[in-house]
Amino acid sequence: MLKKILLVLAALLVALGAGIVLSYTSLKTTPLWNNRAAQWGLVVAVVVGAALGVARGLMKRKCEIRGELVTRHGVGSFLSHWGTALGIFAAIFSGVMMGFFVMSGKSLWIIPVFAKDSTAVLQALNVHYFSVVMILFSAFFFVADYIATRDWALLVPNLRDVIHGFIGKYFLRRKWNEDEKYLASQKSAAMPYMAIGLVILISGAVKVANHVWDLNTSMVGWATVIHDVFTVFIILFTLVHVCIIVVLGDWPAFRSWFTGTMSKKFVEHHHPVWFDDLTTRTNKS
Questions:
Q1: Where would I find the H helices in 150-183?
Q2: CA angle 130, 133, 136 (to 5 degrees)
Q3: Do 259 and 5 contact (CB within 8 A), yes or no?
Q4: What 3-state DSSP class applies to 99?
Q5: What does the pLDDT look like over 118-130, one tens digit per residue?
Q6: Mean pLDDT over residues 225-245, rounded?
Q7: Distance from the CA of 57 to the CA of which of 28, 109, 119, 132 falls in 20 to 30 A?
Q8: Considering the entire predicted model, what is its pTM?
Q9: CA-CA distance, 62 to 251, in Å (whole number)?
Q10: If we measure between CA atoms, which residue out of 135, 102, 132, 99 comes closest to residue 33?
Q11: H or E segment and range at residue 241
């Protein structure tokens, strides 16, 4: 499993790295967003990602206990998680290079423009293109996989998760022993994270559409502002996500995103409902 995981991570890094290198070398004078073949590349990323996600969801192997270890993430989970994460990091980098909050030619700089000339802007735009391709592929892979698996409770929290497993446990310091594969706090954070991502996706789609059709300038301007505002939200959300790992010391769960496994004792103690699923009922990774 570890070899497969490392292969997936290496492939993602090589793919994104190649796109960044091309953006600063042979493609630095080619505006990919205005290129019809590149525009179709976005569609292909969505279709292929969704198709593979469905296939993975239908053929997904069950999580299982192997000696003193529990398999928590399959190769597909690494593909969707790290593909999305790396794409987001590259998108943030290229977005920062171009600056935030520009509407209809009126500058509302919160983060200044670091790309000082047209060539630098074009390079950043092309990096943004490759990051979006990776995000679209990985995100639609994840969504299709999730739908095909049909395990809605995996990430969708109920009221008990929010009130007792998140607010009660972390703010009121009350005891909570009903955590599943993902902690109630993780499930509670997943929905707003996805909602923010959806707004970024829709506003970004408007910006992309403007390269295909001549849209209303005001609409594109507002789409840009909304896109940038919610990008700031996802940056802050990601920072909180990392800080929670550090503050709460949830390192076994963090390591599982590199190894694919967690210790049996840790799962039994911190994820009792999931441990019960592993030993008595059907579950998937």
A1: 159-160
A2: 150
A3: yes
A4: coil
A5: 888 899 999 999 9
A6: 85
A7: 132
A8: 0.89
A9: 23
A10: 132
A11: helix 217-248
